[in-house]
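Backbone-to-sequence.
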Protein backbone atom coordinates (compact mmCIF):
# COMPACT_ATOMS: atom_id res chain seq x y z
CA UNK A 1 0.00 0.00 0.00
CA UNK A 2 1.41 3.38 -0.98
CA UNK A 3 2.23 5.99 1.69
CA UNK A 4 -0.25 8.39 0.11
CA UNK A 5 -3.10 5.88 0.39
CA UNK A 6 -2.14 5.06 3.99
CA UNK A 7 -2.29 8.76 4.91
CA UNK A 8 -5.80 9.07 3.44
CA UNK A 9 -7.05 5.95 5.25
CA UNK A 10 -5.67 7.26 8.55
CA UNK A 11 -7.61 10.49 8.03
CA UNK A 12 -10.78 8.44 7.58
CA UNK A 13 -10.04 6.56 10.82
CA UNK A 14 -9.59 9.89 12.64
CA UNK A 15 -13.04 10.99 11.50
CA UNK A 16 -14.63 7.71 12.51
CA UNK A 17 -13.10 7.67 16.00
CA UNK A 18 -13.91 11.34 16.63
CA UNK A 19 -17.51 10.78 15.56
CA UNK A 20 -18.16 7.54 17.44
CA UNK A 21 -16.12 8.15 20.61
CA UNK A 22 -16.61 11.91 21.09
CA UNK A 23 -12.86 12.52 21.21
CA UNK A 24 -11.59 15.94 20.14
CA UNK A 25 -10.70 15.47 16.49
CA UNK A 26 -7.81 17.88 16.77
CA UNK A 27 -6.09 15.78 19.43
CA UNK A 28 -6.57 12.69 17.28
CA UNK A 29 -5.20 14.52 14.26
CA UNK A 30 -2.07 15.59 16.16
CA UNK A 31 -1.47 11.94 17.12
CA UNK A 32 -2.08 10.87 13.51
CA UNK A 33 0.32 13.55 12.23
CA UNK A 34 2.98 12.23 14.60
CA UNK A 35 2.38 8.59 13.60
CA UNK A 36 2.03 9.01 9.85
CA UNK A 37 4.61 11.78 9.58
CA UNK A 38 7.22 9.91 11.59
CA UNK A 39 6.60 6.28 10.64
CA UNK A 40 5.28 6.50 7.08
CA UNK A 41 6.73 9.72 5.67
CA UNK A 42 9.95 9.76 7.72
CA UNK A 43 9.41 13.38 8.72
CA UNK A 44 11.10 14.92 11.72
CA UNK A 45 9.31 17.24 14.15
CA UNK A 46 10.03 20.28 11.97
CA UNK A 47 8.46 18.54 8.98
CA UNK A 48 5.39 17.54 10.99
CA UNK A 49 4.90 21.02 12.40
CA UNK A 50 5.45 22.66 9.01
CA UNK A 51 1.70 22.54 8.51
CA UNK A 52 0.78 23.91 11.94
CA UNK A 53 -1.46 26.95 11.21
CA UNK A 54 0.24 29.46 13.46
CA UNK A 55 -1.46 32.40 11.79
CA UNK A 56 -4.90 30.84 12.19
CA UNK A 57 -4.14 29.99 15.83
CA UNK A 58 -3.42 33.66 16.53
CA UNK A 59 -6.50 34.82 14.61
CA UNK A 60 -8.81 32.44 16.49
CA UNK A 61 -7.39 33.39 19.88
CA UNK A 62 -7.11 37.12 19.17
CA UNK A 63 -10.53 37.65 17.65
CA UNK A 64 -12.42 35.55 20.21
CA UNK A 65 -10.52 37.30 23.02
CA UNK A 66 -11.40 40.76 21.72
CA UNK A 67 -15.06 39.93 21.18
CA UNK A 68 -15.30 38.19 24.56
CA UNK A 69 -14.41 41.57 26.05
CA UNK A 70 -16.98 43.23 23.78
CA UNK A 71 -19.64 40.82 25.06
CA UNK A 72 -18.61 41.32 28.67
CA UNK A 73 -18.96 45.12 28.57
CA UNK A 74 -22.13 45.11 26.46
CA UNK A 75 -20.67 46.39 23.20
CA UNK A 76 -22.10 43.54 21.15
CA UNK A 77 -25.55 44.22 22.63
CA UNK A 78 -25.22 47.84 21.53
CA UNK A 79 -24.21 46.74 18.02
CA UNK A 80 -27.16 44.36 17.83
CA UNK A 81 -29.51 47.18 18.77
CA UNK A 82 -27.91 49.43 16.13
CA UNK A 83 -28.39 46.70 13.51
CA UNK A 84 -32.07 46.38 14.40
CA UNK A 85 -32.55 50.13 13.99
CA UNK A 86 -30.71 50.02 10.64
CA UNK A 87 -33.25 47.61 9.15
CA UNK A 88 -36.17 49.28 10.98
CA UNK A 89 -36.76 46.27 13.15
CA UNK A 90 -36.90 43.67 10.38
CA UNK A 91 -34.82 40.95 11.97
CA UNK A 92 -35.14 38.79 8.85
CA UNK A 93 -33.03 41.32 6.91
CA UNK A 94 -30.04 41.09 9.24
CA UNK A 95 -28.59 37.87 7.72
CA UNK A 96 -28.65 39.58 4.32
CA UNK A 97 -27.06 42.72 5.78
CA UNK A 98 -24.21 40.55 7.09
CA UNK A 99 -23.97 38.80 3.71
CA UNK A 100 -23.70 42.13 1.90
CA UNK A 101 -21.24 43.57 4.42
CA UNK A 102 -18.74 40.72 4.17
CA UNK A 103 -19.19 40.67 0.40
CA UNK A 104 -18.41 44.37 0.17
CA UNK A 105 -15.33 43.98 2.35
CA UNK A 106 -13.83 41.19 0.23
CA UNK A 107 -14.82 42.86 -3.04
CA UNK A 108 -12.79 45.96 -2.18
CA UNK A 109 -9.70 44.00 -1.21
CA UNK A 110 -10.11 42.38 2.22
CA UNK A 111 -8.87 38.82 2.55
CA UNK A 112 -11.86 36.56 3.13
CA UNK A 113 -10.82 35.35 6.62
CA UNK A 114 -10.22 38.95 7.73
CA UNK A 115 -13.72 39.99 6.63
CA UNK A 116 -15.26 36.98 8.38
CA UNK A 117 -13.22 37.65 11.52
CA UNK A 118 -14.62 41.18 11.65
CA UNK A 119 -18.27 40.41 10.89
CA UNK A 120 -18.90 36.92 12.30
CA UNK A 121 -18.78 37.75 16.04
CA UNK A 122 -21.33 40.54 15.62
CA UNK A 123 -23.55 38.41 13.37
CA UNK A 124 -23.49 35.40 15.70
CA UNK A 125 -24.21 37.57 18.74
CA UNK A 126 -27.27 38.89 16.93
CA UNK A 127 -28.32 35.34 16.06
CA UNK A 128 -28.07 34.27 19.70
CA UNK A 129 -30.20 37.15 20.98
CA UNK A 130 -32.96 36.80 18.41
CA UNK A 131 -33.12 33.02 18.19
CA UNK A 132 -31.79 32.84 14.63
CA UNK A 133 -30.11 29.61 13.60
CA UNK A 134 -26.34 30.05 14.07
CA UNK A 135 -25.88 27.87 11.00
CA UNK A 136 -27.95 30.31 8.95
CA UNK A 137 -26.09 33.35 10.20
CA UNK A 138 -22.65 31.75 9.92
CA UNK A 139 -23.33 30.51 6.40
CA UNK A 140 -24.58 33.94 5.31
CA UNK A 141 -21.38 35.56 6.56
CA UNK A 142 -19.07 33.03 4.85
CA UNK A 143 -21.00 32.95 1.57
CA UNK A 144 -21.12 36.73 1.60
CA UNK A 145 -17.34 36.81 1.87
CA UNK A 146 -17.02 34.44 -1.08
CA UNK A 147 -19.64 36.32 -3.11
CA UNK A 148 -17.34 39.34 -3.32
CA UNK A 149 -14.14 37.35 -3.18
CA UNK A 150 -13.38 37.29 -6.91
CA UNK A 151 -13.94 40.89 -7.90
CA UNK A 152 -11.20 42.19 -10.24
CA UNK A 153 -9.64 44.19 -7.38
CA UNK A 154 -9.99 41.50 -4.71
CA UNK A 155 -7.17 39.37 -3.35
CA UNK A 156 -8.59 36.06 -4.60
CA UNK A 157 -9.55 37.53 -7.95
CA UNK A 158 -6.12 39.03 -8.50
CA UNK A 159 -4.36 35.78 -7.61
CA UNK A 160 -6.52 33.55 -9.83
CA UNK A 161 -6.45 35.96 -12.77
CA UNK A 162 -2.68 36.11 -12.38
CA UNK A 163 -2.47 32.31 -12.46
CA UNK A 164 -4.57 32.19 -15.60
CA UNK A 165 -2.34 34.75 -17.31
CA UNK A 166 0.82 32.92 -16.23
CA UNK A 167 -0.45 29.66 -17.73
CA UNK A 168 -1.36 31.48 -20.99
CA UNK A 169 -5.02 30.52 -20.66
CA UNK A 170 -7.91 32.69 -21.89
CA UNK A 171 -9.52 34.47 -18.98
CA UNK A 172 -12.38 36.80 -18.16
CA UNK A 173 -12.25 38.70 -14.87
CA UNK A 174 -15.91 39.69 -14.99
CA UNK A 175 -17.13 36.15 -15.63
CA UNK A 176 -15.06 34.84 -12.73
CA UNK A 177 -16.50 37.48 -10.38
CA UNK A 178 -20.11 37.04 -11.51
CA UNK A 179 -19.88 33.24 -11.36
CA UNK A 180 -18.80 33.32 -7.73
CA UNK A 181 -21.30 36.06 -6.88
CA UNK A 182 -24.23 34.21 -8.47
CA UNK A 183 -23.31 30.86 -6.96
CA UNK A 184 -23.06 32.26 -3.44
CA UNK A 185 -26.26 34.31 -3.73
CA UNK A 186 -28.15 31.20 -4.82
CA UNK A 187 -26.67 29.08 -2.03
CA UNK A 188 -27.36 31.79 0.54
CA UNK A 189 -30.98 31.96 -0.64
CA UNK A 190 -31.40 28.22 -0.25
CA UNK A 191 -29.83 28.27 3.22
CA UNK A 192 -32.03 31.20 4.23
CA UNK A 193 -35.18 29.26 3.33
CA UNK A 194 -34.06 25.89 4.74
CA UNK A 195 -32.75 27.28 8.03
CA UNK A 196 -35.85 29.25 9.00
CA UNK A 197 -35.40 32.58 7.27
CA UNK A 198 -39.01 32.66 6.10
CA UNK A 199 -40.23 32.21 9.67
CA UNK A 200 -38.34 35.34 10.64
CA UNK A 201 -40.54 37.35 8.29
CA UNK A 202 -43.63 35.95 9.99
CA UNK A 203 -42.38 37.14 13.39
CA UNK A 204 -42.83 40.75 12.34
CA UNK A 205 -40.50 43.53 13.39
CA UNK A 206 -39.12 44.98 16.59
CA UNK A 207 -39.62 48.70 17.02
CA UNK A 208 -36.76 51.18 17.19
CA UNK A 209 -37.13 51.43 20.92
CA UNK A 210 -36.33 47.80 21.35
CA UNK A 211 -39.85 46.40 21.91
CA UNK A 212 -39.74 43.12 20.03
CA UNK A 213 -42.27 40.96 18.36
CA UNK A 214 -43.64 38.08 20.49
CA UNK A 215 -41.03 35.58 21.72
CA UNK A 216 -38.19 37.99 20.86
CA UNK A 217 -35.85 39.21 23.66
CA UNK A 218 -36.12 42.82 24.74
CA UNK A 219 -33.13 45.14 24.91
CA UNK A 220 -33.00 47.06 28.17
CA UNK A 221 -32.01 50.73 28.31
CA UNK A 222 -28.66 49.74 29.81
CA UNK A 223 -27.89 47.72 26.69
CA UNK A 224 -28.48 50.67 24.36
CA UNK A 225 -26.40 53.25 26.24
CA UNK A 226 -22.85 54.09 25.22
CA UNK A 227 -20.47 53.90 28.17
CA UNK A 228 -16.72 54.69 28.16
CA UNK A 229 -15.74 50.99 27.93
CA UNK A 230 -18.14 50.51 25.02
CA UNK A 231 -16.87 53.59 23.24
CA UNK A 232 -13.31 52.32 23.66
CA UNK A 233 -14.32 48.87 22.40
CA UNK A 234 -16.10 50.31 19.37
CA UNK A 235 -13.01 52.37 18.67
CA UNK A 236 -10.93 49.21 18.94
CA UNK A 237 -13.18 47.36 16.49
CA UNK A 238 -12.91 50.25 14.05
CA UNK A 239 -9.15 50.23 14.53
CA UNK A 240 -9.14 46.50 13.76
CA UNK A 241 -10.99 47.11 10.48
CA UNK A 242 -8.65 49.91 9.44
CA UNK A 243 -5.53 47.99 10.47
CA UNK A 244 -6.55 44.94 8.44
CA UNK A 245 -8.09 46.59 5.38
CA UNK A 246 -5.98 49.72 5.01
CA UNK A 247 -2.61 48.83 6.50
CA UNK A 248 -2.73 45.08 5.79
CA UNK A 249 -1.77 44.19 9.37
CA UNK A 250 -2.33 40.70 10.77
CA UNK A 251 -5.89 40.41 12.12
CA UNK A 252 -4.96 38.07 14.97
CA UNK A 253 -2.02 40.05 16.32
CA UNK A 254 -3.94 43.31 15.99
CA UNK A 255 -6.95 41.87 17.84
CA UNK A 256 -4.81 40.53 20.70
CA UNK A 257 -3.06 43.89 21.05
CA UNK A 258 -6.36 45.77 21.20
CA UNK A 259 -7.78 43.24 23.68
CA UNK A 260 -4.78 43.69 25.96
CA UNK A 261 -5.20 47.47 25.90
CA UNK A 262 -8.89 47.16 26.82
CA UNK A 263 -8.08 44.61 29.55
CA UNK A 264 -5.53 46.94 31.07
CA UNK A 265 -7.92 49.88 31.11
CA UNK A 266 -10.99 47.95 32.38
CA UNK A 267 -9.81 44.73 34.01
CA UNK A 268 -13.17 44.14 35.70
CA UNK A 269 -14.93 43.80 32.33
CA UNK A 270 -12.36 41.47 30.83
CA UNK A 271 -11.38 39.29 33.79
CA UNK A 272 -13.22 36.28 32.40
CA UNK A 273 -12.53 37.00 28.74
CA UNK A 274 -9.57 34.65 28.44
CA UNK A 275 -11.71 31.75 29.67
CA UNK A 276 -14.16 32.44 26.83
CA UNK A 277 -11.54 31.95 24.12
CA UNK A 278 -12.69 28.92 22.13
CA UNK A 279 -9.83 26.64 23.20
CA UNK A 280 -11.48 23.32 22.15
CA UNK A 281 -12.09 24.83 18.72
CA UNK A 282 -8.49 26.01 18.52
CA UNK A 283 -7.27 22.48 19.33
CA UNK A 284 -9.67 20.97 16.80
CA UNK A 285 -8.74 23.20 13.90
CA UNK A 286 -5.00 23.33 14.53
CA UNK A 287 -4.78 19.56 14.90
CA UNK A 288 -6.65 18.77 11.70
CA UNK A 289 -4.74 21.36 9.67
CA UNK A 290 -1.43 20.07 11.01
CA UNK A 291 -2.33 16.62 9.67
CA UNK A 292 -3.33 18.15 6.33
CA UNK A 293 0.09 19.80 6.32
CA UNK A 294 1.65 16.34 6.70
CA UNK A 295 -0.38 15.20 3.68
CA UNK A 296 1.01 18.12 1.70
CA UNK A 297 4.58 17.38 2.84
CA UNK A 298 4.12 13.74 1.75
CA UNK A 299 2.78 14.80 -1.65
CA UNK A 300 -0.59 13.10 -1.11
CA UNK A 301 -2.58 16.00 -2.54
CA UNK A 302 -0.36 16.33 -5.61
CA UNK A 303 -0.51 12.54 -6.06
CA UNK A 304 -4.30 12.61 -6.13
CA UNK A 305 -4.45 15.59 -8.48
CA UNK A 306 -1.97 14.14 -10.96
CA UNK A 307 -3.88 10.87 -10.99
CA UNK A 308 -7.04 12.69 -11.99
CA UNK A 309 -5.27 14.89 -14.51
CA UNK A 310 -4.05 11.79 -16.32
CA UNK A 311 -7.57 10.57 -17.12
CA UNK A 312 -8.20 10.50 -20.86
CA UNK A 313 -11.75 11.89 -20.68
CA UNK A 314 -11.54 15.70 -20.32
CA UNK A 315 -15.06 16.25 -18.99
CA UNK A 316 -14.66 13.55 -16.35
CA UNK A 317 -11.24 14.89 -15.38
CA UNK A 318 -12.73 18.38 -15.04
CA UNK A 319 -15.47 17.05 -12.73
CA UNK A 320 -13.00 15.17 -10.56
CA UNK A 321 -10.70 18.21 -10.30
CA UNK A 322 -13.66 20.27 -9.09
CA UNK A 323 -14.37 17.64 -6.43
CA UNK A 324 -10.73 17.46 -5.37
CA UNK A 325 -10.63 21.25 -5.13
CA UNK A 326 -13.75 21.24 -2.95
CA UNK A 327 -12.71 18.37 -0.70
CA UNK A 328 -9.15 19.51 -0.08
CA UNK A 329 -10.13 23.16 0.27
CA UNK A 330 -12.52 22.19 3.08
CA UNK A 331 -9.35 21.53 5.09
CA UNK A 332 -6.74 23.77 3.48
CA UNK A 333 -6.11 27.07 1.70
CA UNK A 334 -8.63 27.70 -1.08
CA UNK A 335 -6.23 29.83 -3.10
CA UNK A 336 -3.42 27.33 -2.52
CA UNK A 337 -5.57 24.53 -3.92
CA UNK A 338 -6.54 26.58 -6.97
CA UNK A 339 -2.88 27.38 -7.47
CA UNK A 340 -2.17 23.66 -7.62
CA UNK A 341 -5.19 22.52 -9.66
CA UNK A 342 -5.27 25.18 -12.39
CA UNK A 343 -1.83 24.11 -13.73
CA UNK A 344 -2.96 20.46 -13.57
CA UNK A 345 -5.91 21.35 -15.79
CA UNK A 346 -3.74 23.03 -18.43
CA UNK A 347 -2.97 19.90 -20.55
CA UNK A 348 -6.58 19.00 -21.29
CA UNK A 349 -7.64 22.67 -21.49
CA UNK A 350 -5.12 23.12 -24.27
CA UNK A 351 -6.83 20.34 -26.21
CA UNK A 352 -9.75 22.70 -26.75
CA UNK A 353 -12.46 20.27 -25.60
CA UNK A 354 -12.99 22.15 -22.32
CA UNK A 355 -13.54 25.92 -22.13
CA UNK A 356 -10.83 27.50 -20.00
CA UNK A 357 -12.96 30.37 -18.69
CA UNK A 358 -15.72 28.05 -17.51
CA UNK A 359 -13.26 25.56 -16.02
CA UNK A 360 -11.40 28.21 -14.01
CA UNK A 361 -14.70 29.64 -12.76
CA UNK A 362 -15.92 26.18 -11.74
CA UNK A 363 -12.68 25.47 -9.89
CA UNK A 364 -12.86 28.85 -8.15
CA UNK A 365 -16.45 28.28 -7.00
CA UNK A 366 -15.83 24.67 -5.97
CA UNK A 367 -12.74 25.55 -3.95
CA UNK A 368 -14.25 28.49 -2.05
CA UNK A 369 -17.92 27.77 -1.28
CA UNK A 370 -16.75 24.92 0.97
CA UNK A 371 -15.17 27.46 3.33
CA UNK A 372 -18.24 26.94 5.52
CA UNK A 373 -16.52 23.74 6.68
CA UNK A 374 -15.47 24.02 10.34
CA UNK A 375 -11.98 22.90 9.29
CA UNK A 376 -11.48 25.86 6.96
CA UNK A 377 -10.35 29.24 8.25
CA UNK A 378 -13.72 30.90 7.68
CA UNK A 379 -15.74 28.05 9.15
CA UNK A 380 -13.44 27.90 12.15
CA UNK A 381 -13.90 31.62 12.76
CA UNK A 382 -17.68 31.22 12.65
CA UNK A 383 -17.53 28.27 15.04
CA UNK A 384 -15.30 30.14 17.45
CA UNK A 385 -17.36 33.34 17.27
CA UNK A 386 -20.70 31.82 18.28
CA UNK A 387 -21.53 32.77 21.88
CA UNK A 388 -23.66 30.68 24.23
CA UNK A 389 -24.17 27.74 21.88
CA UNK A 390 -23.51 24.03 22.13
CA UNK A 391 -20.26 24.07 20.18
CA UNK A 392 -20.21 20.33 19.57
CA UNK A 393 -23.68 20.50 18.05
CA UNK A 394 -22.78 23.60 16.03
CA UNK A 395 -19.58 21.89 14.87
CA UNK A 396 -21.58 18.89 13.65
CA UNK A 397 -24.03 21.19 11.86
CA UNK A 398 -21.20 22.98 10.07
CA UNK A 399 -19.55 19.68 9.21
CA UNK A 400 -22.75 18.21 7.77
CA UNK A 401 -23.50 21.41 5.87
CA UNK A 402 -19.94 21.52 4.57
CA UNK A 403 -20.31 17.90 3.45
CA UNK A 404 -23.51 18.73 1.56
CA UNK A 405 -21.78 21.64 -0.16
CA UNK A 406 -18.82 19.44 -1.11
CA UNK A 407 -21.17 16.81 -2.52
CA UNK A 408 -23.49 19.11 -4.48
CA UNK A 409 -21.75 22.32 -5.56
CA UNK A 410 -18.83 20.93 -7.64
CA UNK A 411 -21.24 18.90 -9.77
CA UNK A 412 -23.54 21.90 -10.18
CA UNK A 413 -20.63 24.20 -11.07
CA UNK A 414 -19.32 21.64 -13.55
CA UNK A 415 -22.75 21.25 -15.15
CA UNK A 416 -23.39 24.99 -15.47
CA UNK A 417 -19.90 26.31 -16.21
CA UNK A 418 -17.88 23.49 -17.78
CA UNK A 419 -20.26 21.31 -19.79
CA UNK A 420 -21.52 24.20 -21.99
CA UNK A 421 -17.90 24.92 -22.93
CA UNK A 422 -17.71 28.59 -21.87
CA UNK A 423 -14.50 30.20 -23.11
Amino acid sequence: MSPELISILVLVVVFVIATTRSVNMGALAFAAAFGVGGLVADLDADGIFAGFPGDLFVVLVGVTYLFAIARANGTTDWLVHAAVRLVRGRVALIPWVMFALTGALTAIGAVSPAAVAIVAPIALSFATRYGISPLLMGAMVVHGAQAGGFSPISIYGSIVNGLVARENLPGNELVLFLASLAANVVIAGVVFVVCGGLKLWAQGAVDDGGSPAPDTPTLSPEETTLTPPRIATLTSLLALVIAVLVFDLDAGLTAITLAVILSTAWPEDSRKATTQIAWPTVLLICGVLTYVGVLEEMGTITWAGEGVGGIGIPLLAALLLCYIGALVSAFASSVGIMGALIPLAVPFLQQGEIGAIGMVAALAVSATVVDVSPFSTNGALVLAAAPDVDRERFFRQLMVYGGVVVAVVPAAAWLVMVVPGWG
